[in-house]
Recover the amino acids of this structure.
């Protein structure tokens, strides 16, 4: 029976968004929460472009759900935290 409990604990710790509020289902912070941001950076590694595509699709969905929220606030929340690439000239 512990297998089922272990699986439930792992799912509860995924820090996945709950819609339509787009809050973290684990910690209740705005999604992506700090934990999820760290996990996304690790999961996508150096592929910032693909992470941006994923977060952009989340932003598009959240924009539909959170119509009263300022667009710039949502943009900052979903993709504004991504590390910037250094520009070498």
């Amino acid at each position: 029976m512990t297998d089922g409990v272990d699986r439930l604990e792992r799912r509860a710790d995924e820090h996945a968004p709950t819609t339509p509020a787009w809050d973290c289902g684990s910690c209740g912070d705005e999604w992506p929460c700090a934990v999820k941001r760290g996990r996304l950076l690790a999961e996508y590694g150096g592929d910032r472009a693909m992470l941006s595509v994923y977060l952009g699709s989340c932003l598009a969905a959240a924009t539909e759900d959170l119509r009263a929220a300022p667009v710039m606030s949502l943009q900052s929340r979903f993709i504004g935290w991504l590390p910037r690439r250094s520009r070498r000239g």
